[in-house]
């Protein structure tokens, strides 16, 4: 869902409900967090592990925890959990 959101910032018509859920969560995110998500998913990086390994100041455990929290928020917004 995150990749689709950042690939189609104007809205993904095929998967509109998911796009709206992600949009709501991302818009309520801290601007720095939004920039990280955009950098990670907007450029369609295939390997998240490679991305975070290149970021010196990123605690890898905290990064995964944060990314999982974002994913859970999206799922809740979407009514999946």
Can you describe what's shown?
There is one protein chain. By secondary structure, the protein is mainly alpha-helical. It has one domain (2-78). Helix content is 68%, strand content 0%. The chain has 5 helices and no strands. The chain has helices spanning 2-7, 16-27, 31-42, 48-53, 60-78. Helix 2 (16-27) crosses helix 5. The chain starts with a helix and ends with a helix. The model has no long low-confidence stretch (mean pLDDT 82).
Which helices and strands occur, and which strands form pairs?
Layout: H1 2-7, H2 16-27, H3 31-42, H4 48-53, H5 60-78
Helix pairs in contact: 2-5
Q: What is shown here, in short?
A:
The protein is an all-alpha fold and 81 residues long. It is 68% helix and 0% strand.
Q: What ranges have pLDDT less than 50 throughout 5 or more consecutive residues?
A: none
User: What fraction strand?
Assistant: under 5%
From the alpha-carbon coordinates, what is the Rg to the nearest angstrom? 13 Å
Largest sheet: none
**Principal-axis shape:** globular
Helix percent reads 55-70%
